[in-house]
Amino acid sequence: MLGFRAVFTTHRERNHLQPLVREQLDRWIANPKGWDPSALHENRWATIGDNVRALLLQHEGQDGSASTRVRIVETKPDGQWITQLTVHAPNARERAAWAWVDIESPDPNSEDPRSRPRRAGTPRFLAPMLDIIDAWDGPARLTTRPIVIRGDEVDEVHRALIDTERRGVVFVAGNDDSLPSVPWTNRIANLTRFTIGMASCYVLDGEATQLLNDRLGQAHAVLPGRLRTYRSQVQPDSVVDGLRHRVLSAERIADDNEQPRLARVLASNAQLQALEQPLPASVARVHRMLERIADDMLVHRLGDVGSKRPSLVPLQPRAAAVETRESDRRQDDVSAQQGMLLDYLKIKVGIDDLTVDRIDELVRLIEVGRSSQEAQKDIASRLAQLQAELDETQKAYHEVKWQLDDEQIENRDAVDRLTRSAETERTLRHRLASMGQAEAAWTAQPSEADVSRPDSFGELLRWLPRLQHVVFTGDPDCAEELDSNDPLGAWASKTWDALLVLQDYAAAKADGRWDRDVHGFLENTPDGCHEWPTRRHARDESEEVRTNPAFWRKRVLPVPVSVVQAGRIFMGAHFKIAQFAMISPRMHYYDHAAQSGRIYVGYIGRHLPTGQTN
Fold this sequence. Notes:
Blueprint: E1 2-10, H1 17-30, E2 44-49, E3 52-60, E4 66-76, E5 79-89, E6 97-104, H2 126-132, E7 135-137, E8 140-142, E9 147-149, H3 154-162, E10 169-173, H4 181-191, E11 199-204, H5 206-216, E12 227-230, E13 247-248, H6 250-254, H7 259-276, H8 281-307, H9 325-349, H10 356-434, H11 438-443, H12 448-451, H13 457-463, E14 470-472, H14 476-480, H15 490-510, H16 518-523, E15 537-538, H17 543-547, H18 549-554, E16 556-558, E17 568-570, E18 574-576, E19 586-592, H19 593-596, E20 598-605
Parallel strand pairs: 9-11, 10-11, 14-20
Antiparallel strand pairs: 1-6, 2-3, 3-4, 4-5, 5-6, 7-8, 10-12, 12-13, 15-18, 16-17, 18-19, 19-20
């Protein structure tokens, strides 16, 4: 599966890009990998290390362009890791040269549908490249450190945000000069350290922050002390579009304990954006051309090998003659042994008379066989790569179709709920008006606290301490992982609604207003309490899950030892946050309100395994 992708252009080094890139790649091959870069030869496969094969392709077009590709296939116990670097320099001086890096990692264990893909990280040779090359993603600079922008330099940032050719995300950190420049820049650098090659990063001073916000408008503004992730296709004139570009709060950035998790989240966001974008048309054309050359080369290799006549491999020379009897005896032993080997060879090949020509023919066949074996391995590797690409494409197609079906169901459900709410609101307002309360009916608005919702699971986790009766005991990484598939924060908002329901339930239980369970609370929600559809709640898991140890154990989740001495308990009750293919987020909880007045939420994350998901 494709795990990493970086594409960048350069004008300044267009004539020197190929040697600069190859120099860094060869250094990486030699150290830390310990392979042999000198084994690479033009337009042929070569072994450069143990279980490592590599192909170097070089092509000069009729238009004067030059293309180079290095593909390295490393076979490991978990499968094949493929690193591919492509460099292209067009002949036209006004066109930029470009480089493209892909890393393919093995698929997760097919027998475990919940096993996580082992995503490839940024290759070590990329950062040194960006340190010496003036690299760009459209109008956005790609560097290894955040770019500090002062005052009217903000034009560069504005161009980078609104340009339609940009592929990767742009991180922008705002300031009002209340934050010391160097420590603030270093903190942003630490947060974005895993996004090198996939994203651009700018740190603005106070003046630049104000100037950029004046151009973008409130919906797309970056506030001082915050970091905003701008995806591609920014539309400043659309308020709704502002929801796509996530904001990282000052509180989370300032929290040292959040730094490692935030760095992973930002890297995941940058990686998904890079993998989702189609290749530029010019890059795709060169890619197809190089793939045809590589495939034609593999097809013709067997014939080429068979037509070559290798030199005769001599037999082991006889031992040097010496004058002593001991040496003569040894020589006789060697001659006898060689005679036996020749007799054995005649029997095995079925030839009575071994001549030099016949031995030449045998050696040629041996070398043809060896070369054929290598060719077959390379062809098998290529076929495996093509099959993996086909499988991934088919999988992506089915997942998108599945997700579309689920999204349509979710949207229809949302429309139905909105329609019912609007009808209820209209009815209640008319009733108030008929009772002489028309002004209250048509002017009363809910408070900001009632309507505000977290826009990410990272924010939701920080909001949880506001709930006196709900305690989160689960793994925050499982929750924050959902943000990658929830760009608008809809799932986080729904999860917060479910948490508010549990808060109201436990509060009602504590003051004696309710004596039934959570599901009963949803069926007959008391006045003034938050509601949740009963069809999106499960009192317990199915019999299949409760009796299958592999599924059951996944739902044994942490609670305080004051609840159970073991510190873990089965949580079958759960809220169905959304239906979204294999992800379909869920929230599992344990109701301890009758004993301690608290609800323990042990899991927020992807749908846990069941027979259906398997």
